[in-house]
């Protein structure tokens, strides 16, 4: 089932087993690797499916894996798993070519949805994505302050840090954040960051 093949890279054996079990149960074909070098060494070209990799690993981490992945000419979509609060890492991963990121601990259905989207995605389809065009148009409706909060959020700032940077209270940051989430129609921070990176805003 090449169309549903997922290559899972994680140095934590329990996490690897857990993800493999979940994906297998959901009908995906799964290959597991304990290090990014294993994936690079063992993956044939042309390969099929998509890659799910942790970002924080000993040896070569997820970012270095992405750099080597693209340098080797691989084009499979890559979804990265990040720890809570690793927004700057997620942004960097997407700039290096990851198509999505998912924060741990994640909901099983959210992971499955991210992988289904990755398996369907191609560069051309993504570039012409009407959702992305709509997002860019909606960002244009933000006030100057909302746009400043958006930029700080995508850079990984917490409400406290953003408040300090913009000289406003964390509570006021939360209000601007709620407004900009509503205006951009992003369901959560992950979606906001993904769209911002794909639109070249981040």
Automatic annotation (TrEMBL):
PROSITE patterns: HTH_LUXR_2, RESPONSE_REGULATORY. GO terms for biological process: phosphorelay signal transduction system; regulation of DNA-templated transcription. It holds the Pfam family Response_reg. SUPFAM superfamilies: C-terminal effector domain of the bipartite response regulators, CheY-like. Keywords: DNA-binding, Phosphoprotein, Transcription, Transcription regulation, Two-component regulatory system. The modification 4-aspartylphosphate is found at residue 54. The keyword Phosphoprotein applies. One of its GO terms (molecular function) is DNA binding. It comes from the Bacteria. It comes from Methylobacterium durans. This is DNA-binding response regulator. Residues 135-200 form the HTH luxR-type domain. Residues 5-119 form the Response regulatory domain.
């Amino acid at each position: 089932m090449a169309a549903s093949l997922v290559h899972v890279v994680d140095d934590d054996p329990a996490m690897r087993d857990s993800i493999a079990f979940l994906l297998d149960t959901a009908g995906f074909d799964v290959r597991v690797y304990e290090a990014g070098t294993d994936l690079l060494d063992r993956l044939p070209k042309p390969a099929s499916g998509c890659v799910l990799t942790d970002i924080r690993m000993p040896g070569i981490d997820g970012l270095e894996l992405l750099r080597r992945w693209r340098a080797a000419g691989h084009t499979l979509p890559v979804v990265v798993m990040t720890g809570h609060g690793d927004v700057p890492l997620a942004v960097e991963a997407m700039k290096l070519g990851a198509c999505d990121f998912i924060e741990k601990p994640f909901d099983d259905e959210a992971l499955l949805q991210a992988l289904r989207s990755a398996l369907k995605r191609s560069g051309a389809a993504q570039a012409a994505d009407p959702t992305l065009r709509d997002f860019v148009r909606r960002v244009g409706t933000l006030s100057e302050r909302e746009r400043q909060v958006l930029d700080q959020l995508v850079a990984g700032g917490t409400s406290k840090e953003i408040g300090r940077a913009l000289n406003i209270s964390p509570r006021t940051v939360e209000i601007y954040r709620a407004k900009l989430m509503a205006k951009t129609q992003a369901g959560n921070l992950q979606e906001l960051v993904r769209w911002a990176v794909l639109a070249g805003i981040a």
